[in-house]
Amino acid sequence: MTQTLSEKLTSFSNPMNDADSILALQIDGELTTTRKGTRLLSALLANHVKVLKACGGQGRCATCHVFIQKGMDCLTPYTEQEIMTLGLMKIEQPNARLACQCMVLRDGVSLEVPKGKYVGSETELESLVGKKAQQSIFHPITGETLVYEGKLILRTALQRMQAANQQFDQEMNLLLSRKSKKDN
Question: What is the pLDDT of residue 92?
Answer without folding.
Answer: 80
